[in-house]
Specification:
The structure holds two protein chains of two kinds. By secondary structure, chain A is of the alpha/beta class. In chain A, about 25% of the residues lie in helices and about 20% in strands. Chain A contains twelve helices and 19 strands. Chain B has helices at about 5-20, 25, 50-60; strands at about 40, 45-50. Chain B has a two-stranded antiparallel ribbon with strand order 1-2. The chains are: A alpha/beta, B alpha+beta.
């Protein structure tokens, strides 16, 4: 069933106790709703936006960057049905096994669950995302390089809203309600359970309440902590924030151009490589991905490789490059990098977000190491030469993180999964520590970001959470 | 203050000039090839040492 919160209520929410109320209809929320309905569960799926992007909804993503330069917070995510899958690039890759293990270089970069917990859902996640079959890796080094390995991605053009809108609307067990903005999370008297979620439409003044046996917040990596922190009517510090953990550990996939390459043979398409375990151990860096992206030449470089290189060394201004080179790194999990509430309030009286993003020395080291090692590999195998940007080799120059070049719009780890409530917000079942029926879906529960684009893992986690919730709901 | 590109060019040319001062046998392409060519980073370029030798000969 499809409802619009702007229209007069028909009593659906007043008269129904849902099995699960899901707040947010992006990839996590949609996957969770459809999977729970397939198990016979009655679901309220509450979406703050409509069927298309609108200024009034998008404005509610406004906030301020108070740490490192970053994209405007209302431009790096989308607030309508399908969420940020409406503008994603479609790159998918599961996390690597090493992402789950504590890294000697930075032990906080680890998950409390093994990779096998998510692998059990990989095939279904691939189906949901309409992924093409795995293609053979592209390897400019022809298998001879042991420090940098080909990175394998599957790319899908899939958009969640057009793909699943009809399934959601036609389901007898799902009530999808558009234009429903979460404005409060009500707790029981002992503050140990959620008793209802309160929503408001844009034009109608009266709030309405949704009651369920279990609740899941799936509003995205920045809005999930904001929702918990703004639910401060009964607990002034916000829900699940007894250890000041909500919003901490904000991670991005730092993405920065590091130089340009002259290649012995032209590239047909973008090439992706990742660090080997050996390289990470030898150089004590975190994992990274490095991309070679062919340059579109106005006039193709006519000279052979060796002559072009000699020419470039003599006169860098006339260098004819073949590829741009960029690095994406797994950010170190860092409690001082965080999403907090500012003092400015939105139209519903909720405090806007301030993003206080920080990176650490090991992140800068990883960026520089990735660039240098790619340069070494290109030279070692005689497939190219890389000219690094000045900041890569001169550590007195800051890493050039700017509003235009900083991250990948991947917002992770802000309600981090941890067995210890002093280092995270949710337990290994994605349940909020201390609240028996409140769960979180999406990349905010990542314990460590890895380098893989997050959507595949988001879907795996949503499928796993659906199984967990179904088990907890029992036969009642 | 020189722009970075200009600074690079001057330093690189200085290095090439230094190489030209080497005995001819040391920079001759006719000498026995190295078993493993050394990787050097010069003004941002990640190169093989032989790249510099070749560039130096070109300059000569």
């Amino acid at each position: 069933m499809l409802l619009d919160a702007e229209q007069p209520q028909d009593g659906t929410f007043k008269d129904t106790i849902f099995d699960v109320c899901i707040c947010g209809a992006g990839p996590a929320g949609i996957t969770l709703a459809l999977t729970l309905a397939a198990k016979g569960r009655r679901v309220a799926l509450m979406e703050a936006g409509g069927l298309d992007v609108t200024t009034e909804s998008q404005d509610l993503y406004q906030g301020k960057n108070v740490g490192l330069a970053y994209y405007p917070l209302d431009a790096c995510r989308l607030r309508y049905l399908g969420g940020s899958s409406n503008h994603w690039g479609g790159f998918t890759r599961p996390l690597d096994a090493r992402d789950f293990q504590p890294m000697p270089q930075h032990p906080l970069n680890a998950w409390p669950i093994p990779k096998s917990d998510l692998d059990a859902y990989a095939e279904r996640a691939a189906d949901i995302l309409d992924l093409p079959p795995l293609a053979p890796p592209i390897d400019i080094f022809r298998g001879k390089e042991d420090l940098i390995e080909p990175g394998i991605y599957r790319v899908t053009p899939m958009r969640f809203a057009p793909k699943y809108r009809n399934d959601l609307a036609q389901s007898q067990l799902i009530t999808l309600c558009l234009n429903a903005n979460l404005v409060d999370i009500e707790l029981s008297e002992n503050l140990a359970a959620v008793t209802g979620m309160v929503f408001r439409a844009y034009m109608r003044d009266e709030p309405f309440r949704v009651v369920a046996r279990r609740y899941v917040v799936c509003c995205g990596g920045l809005e999930n902590p904001r929702a918990l922190l703004n639910a401060n009517r009964q607990i002034p510090a916000g829900i699940a924030n007894q250890h000041d953990q909500v919003g901490r550990y904000f991670c991005e996939h730092i993405e920065i151009g590091v130089g340009q390459a002259i290649l012995a043979a032209p590239l047909a398409e973008d090439n992706f490589y990742i660090a080997s375990d050996k390289l990470m151990a030898d150089r004590r860096c975190l994992s990274f991905e490095i991309m070679l992206m062919p340059l579109q030449q106005v006039s193709p470089c006519a000279l052979p490789f060796a002559e072009r290189l000699t020419q470039a060394l003599h006169d860098p201004g006339k260098a004819c490059f073949d590829a741009n080179v960029s690095v994406v790194t797994c950010q170190s999990v860092n409690p001082s990098s965080r999403a907090i509430l500012g003092n400015t309030k939105d139209r519903f009286g909720l405090r806007q977000l301030e993003l206080d993003w920080h990176i650490a020395d090991i992140d800068r080291h990883t960026l520089r190491t990735a660039a240098e090692e790619m340069g070494r590999a290109l030279a070692r195998h005689e497939v190219g030469r890389l000219r690094l940007d000045p900041w890569v080799t001169d550590t007195s120059i800051n890493v050039p993180i700017t509003e235009q070049q900083s991250g990948s719009s991947h917002h992770m780890c802000t309600t981090r999964m941890s067995d210890d409530p002093k280092t995270g917000v949710v337990d290994r079942d994605c349940r909020v520590h201390g609240i028996e029926n409140l769960h979180i879906g999406g990349s905010s529960v990542f314990s460590s970001p890895g380098i893989s684009n997050p959507t595949f893992t988001i879907i795996e986690l949503a499928l796993r959470l659906a199984d967990h919730l179904d088990g907890r709901l029992g036969k009642g | 203050m020189a722009a970075f590109g200009e600074l690079n060019r001057r330093r690189l040319l200085g290095l090439l000039t230094g190489l030209l001062a080497l005995p001819a046998a040391a920079r001759s392409p006719a000498r026995a090839p190295r078993a493993v060519d050394e990787i050097v980073i010069v003004d941002g370029w990640v190169l093989l040492a032989s790249d510099l030798e070749r560039a130096a000969l070109h300059a000569a």
